[in-house]
Every structure is written in C-alpha cells, then in structure tokens.
Amino acid sequence: MKQKMKEQEDEAEKLRRNLKTTKIQELEVEKQMFADECTRLRHIIEELMKNRNTGYPPEMTELEEKFYQQNILLKNIKHENSELANAFQKKDEELKKWKEIAQELDRKTSKLVSAQKENTKNKKVLKETKKE
User: Fold this and answer.
1) 6 sits in which H/E element
2) What is the pLDDT of residues 105-122, one digit of tens each?
3) Is the pTM of this model over 0.70?
C-alpha cells in the first residue's frame, strides 16, 4: 500500500512537473509572440515616422508625382496646340494672299488675252483694208 501511494505521489509529482513545464513552454511561446508583435509594430512606427516627414503615405506621394508629370505634359500639349494654331492661322493668311495674287494674275492674263485677241482682230481688219 505504501508502495502504491508512493507511486501515485510520484505520478502526481510528474504531472505537476509536466504542467509546470507545459506552462513554461506556453509562456515562452507567448513571450516570442509578444517579441514578434513588438518588432512588427516597431516597423510600422518607423514607416509612419518616415512618412511623417513627407506628410503623406508613399502611395499619395506617387500619385502626386504622376499628377505633377501629367500636369506638365498637359501644359506642353496646350502650348504646342497654341503654336500649331498660330502657325495654321499664318499659313491660312499666306494662302489667302496667294489666292488673291493668283486671281489678280488671272484677271491680268484675261485682259492680256483679250487685248491680244483685239490686237489680232485689228491686224486682220487692217490687212483687209489694205488689200482693198
């Protein structure tokens, strides 16, 4: 009977030790989890501190940069369009002048052709009157 009691006490002691060991292992795992969470939070805080200097998260900074570049492109395109519109207007005016010159030359040519026909007609009449 003493032997059985001794065995039961030994077994109970083993269970208590095992429980203590298990509790220690649980605490060690929990400690490691807290350490990992602290590291994760430290990284987040560092990132926030970096971003605090710029005042914006990185995504916002990227969007601002893209907006700025697109704004510059838009201004350049507007400027080019304005220059092209001016060049187009100048070419239109030049074309109008050339059309006016062509019309004037057509009128002069028509007058010259008419005068030439009249001259030829007069020469024929003169020849005919001389023959007579």
Assistant:
1) helix 2-54
2) 999 999 999 989 888 888
3) no
